[in-house]
Design brief:
The complex is a heterodimer of chains A (72) and B (181). Chain A has 4 helices and no strands. The radius of gyration of chain A is 11 Å and the shape is globular. With 72 residues, chain A is mostly helical. Chain A has one domain: Orthogonal Bundle (Non-ribosomal Peptide Synthetase Peptidyl Carrier Protein, Chain A), CATH 1.10.1200.10. In chain A, α1 crosses α2. The model of chain B has no long low-confidence stretch (mean pLDDT 95). Classes of the chains: A mainly alpha (72), B alpha+beta (181).
């Protein structure tokens, strides 16, 4: 699951998946703005079948927190 | 994250002028203006006397971040146009976007007592349209080739939300209250 989530993030942000890990914070990547965040949440729902409520999604600040939501 | 909305002042104009001409901002806007500080000061004097518009500086953790506004305020109909942009790239978070939008809904419907809030978005900016819909707004219409910028015509999506729709949506979401000074 972790690899799939990282691939989704990398595809949307157009970055090499190798630069992403659980410690990556949203603020570390300039391209990870509000609209990119929205697209990532939407792609996770469409590709992995995991819907994250929008008011929970907005509290996510790192890849680790995103993975916890997806796996929770 | 502490967010404050304070009324725009003349001292803010140089900063907001640069934001408003940033291609990262104008690609979401209906116009690509070429602004001057002198022109902005005249504009500010004009809007300071205009009761149909209100402008606030968005301040995030003490840092000026962008501008949010109401326009075409119609006190008789109880409706208003609105818009915002976050000029500081590092502050463009989903949390800020949602918190701003939901707090503005609160302001318009609960403090001003209005019935309807609306805006128009370039349809090509699908993410922005989705963001508004996720916040509770709905798509009213799509106007083909409604805006022309630099010789290119763009479709525009008209979006709105009513007081009743916001009351229903509000009951389903959690967000921080913004201080408006």
């Amino acid at each position: 699951m972790k690899e799939k989530v990282l691939e989704i993030i990398a595809e949307i942000l157009k970055v090499d998946v190798a630069v992403l890990n659980e410690d990556t914070k949203i603020e570390d990547i300039e391209k990870w703005d509000s609209l990119a965040h929205l697209m990532i949440i939407e792609a996770i729902e469409n590709k992995l079948g995991k819907a994250i409520p929008i008011d929970e999604a907005m509290e996510i600040t790192s890849v680790k927190e995103l993975l916890e939501k997806v796996e929770g | 994250m502490q967010i404050v909305l304070r009324r725009l002042t003349e001292a803010d104009l140089e900063k907001t002028m640069h934001w408003r001409m940033d291609p990262d901002i104008t690609r979401y806007m209906n116009t690509d203006p070429v602004l001057t500080l002198e022109g902005q000061k005249k504009w500010f004097q004009k809007i300071s006397q205009d009761e149909t518009v209100r402008y606030w500086m968005i301040v995030v953790d003490g840092e000026d971040a962008g501008v949010i506004n109401l326009a075409d305020i119609d006190y008789e109909k109880g409706e208003s146009n609105w818009g915002y942009y976050v000029g500081e790239k590092k502050l463009r978070s989903l949390k800020l976007s949602l918190t701003l939008e939901w707090n503005l809904y609160d302001y318009v419907f609960e403090i001003m007592g209005f019935k309807r809030l609306y805006n128009e978005v370039l349809s090509a900016n699908e993410g922005v349209v989705k963001l508004h819909v996720m916040c509770g707004s709905r798509i009213d219409a799509i106007y083909p080739e409604h805006v022309e910028k630099n010789g290119v015509k763009y479709d525009v999506t008209a979006i709105s939300i009513t007081a009743q729709e916001w009351a229903a949506k509000k009951a389903t979401v959690k967000y921080e209250k913004i201080e408006m000074v």
